[in-house]
Amino acid sequence: MNRRHALQATALLGGASALGVWELSAAPAKKKTPPLTPAEIVAIEAALGKKGTYKEEEATHNTALPRNDLKVRVKGEAVPIPFGFGGWVAIKRTVDGKTAMLMSDTVLLQEEVNPLISAALANGLEISAIHNHFFYEEPRIFYMHLHGMGTPAELAKKFAATISQSKISPKNQPGGQAPTSGTQSGNTATGAAAAPTGKENFDLPALDAIVKHTGTVNGPTYKYTIGRPDLTVMAMGAEMTAAIGLNSWASFAGTKEKAHIAGDVAMLSSEVNPVISALRRHNLEVVALHNHMLGDDPHMIFLHYYGQGPATQLAQGFRAALNELGKHGKGLNHQKH
C-alpha cells in the first residue's frame, strides 16, 4: 500500500519527467516572426468588432468566434458551446515580414457552408478544408477553414466582410461578444457564465497529472491546448504554431464521474495510425481524419476523437495519443529519415 501511494505521489509531482521527447525539445531555429504592431492590432480588432488576444511569443493575434446562438446535443445530452463549438480567426506575419497571413476555423450549420464559401471567395479569401469534428451531434455541424494573404488590416477587413451576414460575426451573436482573454486556439469558445465551472466539475490536479500539462477553465469546461514544439511547420511563408491552429487539444464537459471528451491531435503522416491505435485501445472513438491547411511543410494531419466515461480514464486516452507523437519518423509506415 505504501509503495502504491509513493508511486502515485511520484506521478503527481514528477509528471514533467514523463513528458515525451517532442514536448521537451525545440524545433530547429528559424527566423523570428516579426511582431504585429500595436496599430495593426487596433486595426484588426476594429475591423472584427471584437477584442482578441495577442500572443507575443508566437507573434499571433487570435479572436474567438463562439456559436453561442446554438444549442447542441451530443448523444442526446446537452453540451456547452466551449466544449468544441467555437471558431477562431488568427493573423500573423510571414517570417520575412513582407506580408501577413490569416487562418480561421469557422463553425457552421450545413446550410451555412456554401453561402460562407461564396462570401469568402468574393472577399479574396480561400478555403482549405471542410469537415466534421463530431459524430452524434444535433444539429449537424461542420467546420470550414479559411486562409488568405495581405496586410493585417486588409485581412481583418476581408474576413469581417466575409462573415458579416453570418451568425459567426460577433455583431450577430446573442447580446454581442465581450472581450475575451487567454490564448484562443483550436476550438476555444467563450460561453455564457455558468455555475459550476470546470474547476468545480473536475479534479483538475488529477487530470493535469495524467495529461502532464495544465489546462484552461472555460465556463463549465476544462481544455488542454498543446503545440508541436518539436516541429517547424511552414505554410504560405509563415510559421504554424499553436496559436494559429497547429495544436492538439482535449476538452472536457460534464462531471468527473460522467464526462465527455472531444479533441484533436496534430500529426505527421507517420504518426496517424499509432495515434489511432492508442485512442482505440482506450475506447475513444475516432470521428475524423483530415487536413486543416494547404501547402504546409511538413504536411500535417488532424484527427478528431470523442469519448464518454470517468474524466481520468478519458484523460489517459488523450495522454496515450500524445505519447505516440515525435517517435515515428517523418514518413509513411513509420519509416525513419
UniProtKB/TrEMBL annotation:
Protein name: DUF1259 domain-containing protein
Compositional bias of kind Polar residues: 167-179
Protein's organism: Rufibacter glacialis
PROSITE patterns per the UniProt record, alphabetical: TAT
Cross-referenced InterPro entries: TAT_signal (IPR006311), Uncharacterised_LppY/LpqO (IPR011094)
Composition-biased stretches (Low complexity): 180-197
Domain of life, source organism: Bacteria
Region of interest (Disordered), ranges: 167-197
